[in-house]
Backbone:
């Protein structure tokens, strides 16, 4: 029988996860649409506009409602410590977005989503190195199933392009690193920032390297393409701002591992619809690989839920044990 606390946690996870899936899937479809050669195939410029919109909207929201930023005072007091985390995080975020958007020029949405399933293994390995996850061979065995499924999907790609694959892997490495740093900033490191404060500091740190990169590789065609499609690009940037908020919320309220698991559910939805929306071909081998991936994810989710229940039981028993020890000592 689930307790009230467990029911609230499940409800919160479904609410946050549902919003993340909806917003992220819509942005992926939006990006794929814009990155067409006939519209706006400029990944760095588009990513820079995402970050510019996020920076502007965050500053506007802080100006109008500073009470929504409860940890802003702490962030200002510890700005040196914060910058040690936020500056590399901003660079990693910019790199992840650029490579991910650029990969749409070479590979199908379905294939790129298959590649992302490997994030579970990547982020688990990184979490163990940072002490955020407890290593066990049982977990390695389960994640090996996920990796095997990803390999089947990659080898089953009909139109495999190395450029798209390498861009996607680079994006995933940067994204996993960024998510772990974000989790530390919002849950520890002496900061524990709220979601909006985190986004307000992160966005300009991601925007700066993107602006420099766009300036160094500027092409007048970017301006012509922007003038032709600016209303759609504007809506796309607003979608990106909403996604940045929901990503930060997920990392704050849940964890980096939960974020990846929810992302995999999102990816399954995208893979199921990509062939209908974009006409992406999914081979029989990729279908088998995807089934293997989902089996591994189901095992992983069961393991994490079991660990959470054991942890909760331990926390509940500690006060009771302490209460029994005191009278015994006095006697």
Residues:
């Amino acid at each position: 029988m689930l307790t009230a606390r467990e029911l609230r946690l499940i409800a919160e996870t479904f609410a946050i996860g549902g919003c993340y899936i909806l917003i992220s899937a819509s942005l992926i479809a939006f990006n794929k649409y814009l990155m067409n050669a006939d519209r706006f195939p400029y990944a760095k410029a588009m990513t820079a506009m995402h970050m510019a919109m996020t920076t502007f909207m965050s500053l506007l929201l802080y100006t109008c409602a500073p009470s929504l930023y409860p940890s802003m005072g702490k962030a200002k007091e510890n700005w040196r410590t914060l910058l040690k985390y936020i500056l590399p995080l901003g660079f990693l975020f910019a790199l992840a977005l650029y490579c991910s958007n650029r990969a749409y020029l070479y590979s199908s949405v379905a294939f790129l989503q298959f590649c992302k399933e490997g994030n579970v293994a990547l982020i688990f390995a990184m979490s163990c190195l940072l002490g955020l996850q407890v290593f066990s061979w049982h977990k390695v065995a389960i994640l090996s199933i996920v990796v095997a499924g990803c390999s089947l999907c990659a080898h089953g790609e009909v139109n495999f392009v190395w450029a798209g694959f390498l861009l996607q892997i680079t994006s995933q490495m940067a994204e996993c690193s960024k998510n772990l740093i974000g989790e530390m900033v919002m849950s520890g490191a002496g900061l524990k920032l709220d979601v909006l404060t985190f986004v307000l500091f992160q966005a300009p740190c991601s925007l700066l390297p993107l602006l420099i990169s766009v300036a160094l590789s500027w092409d007048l065609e970017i301006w012509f393409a922007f003038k032709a499609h600016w209303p759609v690009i504007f809506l796309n940037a607003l979608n990106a701002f909403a996604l940045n908020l929901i990503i930060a919320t997920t990392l704050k309220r849940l964890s980096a591992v939960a974020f990846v698991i929810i992302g995999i559910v999102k990816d399954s939805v995208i893979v199921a619809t990509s062939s209908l929306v974009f006409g992406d071909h999914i081979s029989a081998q990729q279908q088998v690989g995807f089934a293997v991936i989902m089996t591994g994810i189901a095992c992983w989710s069961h393991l994490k839920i079991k660990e959470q229940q054991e942890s909760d039981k331990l926390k509940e028993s500690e006060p009771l044990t302490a209460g029994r020890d005191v009278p015994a000592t006095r006697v």
